Amino acid sequence: NNIAEYKALIRGLEEVKKINPERIDVYCDSQLVVKQLNKKYKVKNKGIIPLFNQVEEIIRTIPGKIYFIWDRRDNNFMADGLAKRALAEEEINKRKKAAKDLKIERKNDYFLVSSSKPGKYYKVDINIPQCECIDFLRRAGKLKLECKHIMAVRNFLQKVERKRETKNRQKMKILILSKMVKPQVWENAFNELNKKEKLNLEFIIPKTDERETIKKYLKEVEVAIGGSFSKENIEQAKKLKLIQIPFAGVDKLDFDLYKNCQGIYICNIHSNRTAVTEHAFALVLALAKILSLMIEIKLGR
């Protein structure tokens, strides 16, 4: 809580110094903090020392006189609420960080989560949720927070759900007609960028005449990178939702062709090949998320 007080004080002083006040009265419900700032107590806590030093640095930039005054917490409900909120956020972030390294073992109706001590596991019932660790029983429970073991189980379940969604996700077909970047470079770049998102992508890289390729594949792809299209092409492109054209192709684009195609997004970019591929992948990712959301809406989720 004292750390939260210091952080709030730093934020307040940063704002106040902009108006060059002649006098500042700072009310704080922590006697320890007030006495430290008034030089009656020495700061010994390693977590507070850098915050105290930061306050001192800010004070030196403020010409006005600053008074630190202790005020009972009961006299300031708003300050009390802000302090509790800051403390809760700090406690949550601390547990989130610790939860990343824990191992999860799934049982029939509960989970076993590893401890920081080798060979020690805690039982977690995620349905309640409840954990048998000391943190949950004594501290997290009182603060109405989840312990790191419960957070670890939630992370585990989210990963399982993402894998399931990835497995069930329909394949997105991408027709690569761009001449700016070699076809294989496109595929390699997309695969590298896709390691995290794991979109289900299928690349169609033409090895024959472009016009024949467009005629053959455009009706089944959702994304086309590069290329120029005729009215006949667009009419048969029932699934097409995104076209990326290089900057050099803008002057050749017949915009009248797309006036009645409100379901197709058209974009371009003028940069190096790395930027072009990253831009294209970002658009594909955005499109995939839109399609996923549309499916969920249809299913009533």
TrEMBL record:
The UniProt record lists the SWIM-type domain at: 122-158
Task: State the SUPFAM superfamilies in the record.
Answer: Formate/glycerate dehydrogenase catalytic domain-like (SSF52283), Ribonuclease H-like (SSF53098)
CDD domains xrefs: RNase_HI_like (cd09279)
Query: Which Pfam family, any one of them, does this sequence belong to?
Result: 2-Hacid_dh
Please provide, alphabetically and separated by semicolons, the GO molecular function terms listed in this UniProt record: NAD binding; nucleic acid binding; oxidoreductase activity, acting on the CH-OH group of donors, NAD or NADP as acceptor; RNA-DNA hybrid ribonuclease activity; zinc ion binding
Instruction: Enumerate the spans annotated as RNase H type-1 domain.
Output: 1-97
InterPro entries named among the record's database cross-references: D-isomer_2_OHA_DH_cat_dom (IPR006139), RNaseH-like_sf (IPR012337), RNaseH_domain (IPR002156), RNaseH_sf (IPR036397), Znf_SWIM (IPR007527)
Q: What is this protein called?
A: SWIM-type domain-containing protein
